[in-house]
Amino acid sequence: MRLERIQNISDFKQLQPYWNKLLDQNDQDNPFLLFEWMNAWVENYADEYILYLLIGYSGDKPVGIAPLALNRKQELIFIGYPLNDFASFILDDKEDDFFDDVFQYLFDHKQDWKKIILDQIPENSRLLNYLNNPERIKKYPIHITPSDSCPEMKIDDPAKARKKYNKKHLNTYTNWFKAQGELNHTVHDTVESTLTAMESLFQIHINRRDKTPYPSHFTEEKHKRFYRTAIQALIPLGAVRLYHLTLDSTIDLSFFLAFQHKDILYLYTTGFNDNYARRSPGQITLRYIMDYALENNLKKIDFARGDENYKDRYTNSVKQNYLATIYSGKFKRQIRILYYAFKYSALINLLYRNKKVRPLKYVFLYHRRVSGTAVALIKTVEAMFSGKHIRE
Question: Which secondary structure element, helix H or strand E, spans residue 378, and what is its range?
């Protein structure tokens, strides 16, 4: 196999005729590995990264793609990071030697990078199996840790799946909205209507996140441009569905931006009107989404990475993504292993991840962002004794 490195955008774009065809043969096949998604990222974030794609050729035909880029810290990352829900290499199902060639090349060129961060690798991927091999870990300074969990709704039994979404409180909330006016559900799947609705999603996301520890990334125009570019490229593939719930066609209640790839629907970005949060407009929209999945015989609904509370009620399975960090030397890996041993210890798990403690974490992080650490500590103590927490 001949390995070639691509650094400029024009050479990257020359791969378009081969990319998605190769993806069809890959063990991981999802919308975040499509050329259109990668190209949108490259076009909008090129000023922050240097492309570092490694392409394996059999003759003149690409048979393997390692979609990597070098950031300003000299860290090699996946193209699309951190916007991908899933990431991996793309290769022909017979080309296992590609992994060996890529990592041999990377360590032959250690002067180019300080660390390799391969985040959001699915639990069942060939790449993870390759990296998690004891012989590989002995050869390379690799450290593998859990990354985000990814809840999903498998639709093996349609009747059982529908029952999970036919909840009494959703009927109550739906009837309440209908008593206030006309409840409308729209699915945007054309370029013009989707881009118009996305502007409302951006704003509703910003408004909602302003009340949490984590401000919306849509406050930056660059991120909005990425979404617009990706949507325009993916809609011709039939991959975009923007679910939109309104009251009297004038009040935006909720949005779900989803990508459909083959027989799986990936819920990606959501936003809801905080003024109606107690009536769960987002969960009402989920019922429409489930109806669509059942009517079109979809295999499952992927709820994207993250452990938001509502996902527990509407999913029946959880996948695990992993982070593989590769160091230029074994000493750096050992320091990282000690850090993670502390970070994921039983004590930290109790204090930081316990469901009873987690709301306090959100109180602290939110007030630290808007008012500083001293105020955050005071507000956290107040919340601890009052029982009033910021809603997640």
Answer: helix 373-386
